[in-house]
Every structure is written in structure tokens, then in C-alpha cells.
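hey m, so remember when u said the C-alpha cells were messed up on ur end? i reran from scratch. heres the input so u can diff it against urs
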Amino acid sequence: HDHGKDRKLEGDVAPMPKPKLVRSEDVAPAASRAVKAISKYSWADGKKFVSIYVDYPGIGAKADQCSVKNKQRSVMLTVSEGDHDRALKLVRLNQKIVGSSLKIKDDQVVVKLEKADTLTKWYDLHKTTARG
């Protein structure tokens, strides 16, 4: 059963119209910066805060290029470096946090994570599924 061929032979199929340009805009390409991971850090548990220490030579002069964002169980430190960013992303934190802040020293960044539950000690920075 071949409907398309019969119609074309009889001439009752109109040709497709050519598309017309209605409007043209210059759109800047999305700026995507390269991100290099920060993989070396240390941490310590305190009564109200968990502190994360990142050695970063010369960071004291770049304090305005540092930022930190957090969710309940994750935190991300970002340092803007010219054409790329350096980032430390920690997910699946051991416990919930209610905030984060930065302390910039000459050659070190300290990220302070405010504990949601100050009575709980953090024995691990990341939540693990294994129990035992």
C-alpha cells in the first residue's frame, strides 16, 4: 500500500517552502572555565566547626578570588586563577552542616564548616555506607 508515491505522481503534493530568516542575534558563547581539582587537604573536628586546611602558596594576595559554597552535606572551595579555577569539592559529608566560611592566611585557606549538631563528633569527613 503506497500512498506517498501515488500522490507525488498525481502532483497534489506542494513542495516544502524555503525557510526565511526572521531575526538574527549575536550570542556570545557560554564562558566555560577550565577547573583543576585541589586534591590535597587536611581536616580537624572541633566542638562547633569542622576545619578543612588547604595549603596554597601565595593565596594571601588572592583573598578576593576565593569563594566557598555549601549545601547540607557538601562544600566547594573555588579559587579563580587567571584563565582557570582551582576547586576542592567535598560531597557526602559525614554529618549535616548549616554554613561555611573562609579564613585566608598567607599560604593557606581554612574552610570552616558549621556543624548542624554540635554534640556529634566527626570521626570521618565523608559518610561511608559500610558499618562495622
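this time it looks ok to me. The CA atoms of residues 124 and 130 lie 12 Å apart. if urs says something different then somethings off w ur setup not the seq
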